[in-house]
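Morning. Coffee machine broken again, so started the prediction first thing and wrote up yesterday's gels while waiting. Chain of 227 residues, entered below exactly as on the submission form.
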Amino acid sequence: MKRIFFVEDDLSLVNGLTFAVKKQGYEVDVARTSHEAERMWDETKYDLVILDVALPDGSGFDLCKVIRQTSKVPIMFLTAADEETDIIMGLDIGADDYITKPFKLAVFLSRINALLRRSDNFSQSEAELSSKGITVQRLKGRAYKNGEALDLTSSEYKLLCLFIENPDVVLSPEQILGRLWDCNENYIDNKTLTVYIRRLRMKIEDNPGKPDKIVTVRGMGYKWDGI
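Came back before lunch.
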């Protein structure tokens, strides 16, 4: 049974969402402070982490950074912090999804299912991918450039895998978002994808200003130039 870690200090929200998530067949642990969350994270293995940004004793952003130091577990922010800068910050530091309050319960549950399903799909895929000096070791969840380890967020790692799996295939933004987020509706917009592409290029390209791995195909999307 999948175990979800929910870090949120709003007790009424915690109770309602915990009930709904358990009805989906998941186990749920709850922390209401950053200190409690760090202790529980060290003691238990989780399949998904859901974070609020504003916590009584700290920031969900900082907690996300701590988790990303040791794990590529899917992370979702669920927060009232809906400024574009907050969303970009959350995604840049390693979150896989970012939902702002208020939200629809059905959408929330759909995105939990999608994150967990996608995580399972990645763990079951080909053990190693290699192209143009980039190597991905799926069983270890690591990627390398010319033998040197790359510091990738979970979403950057999955985006890299998607590109290398489809060399010389033009992928539209809609296709990329659909494959990575596995949702029927356009929950994640093109601005978010642009952030991911830019950040990934900064880490894998020799010259990010003139990329030769992830190439933009004007009016169509992006492709991994496998030549």
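The chain is about 40% helix and 20% strand. Going to sketch it on the whiteboard this afternoon.
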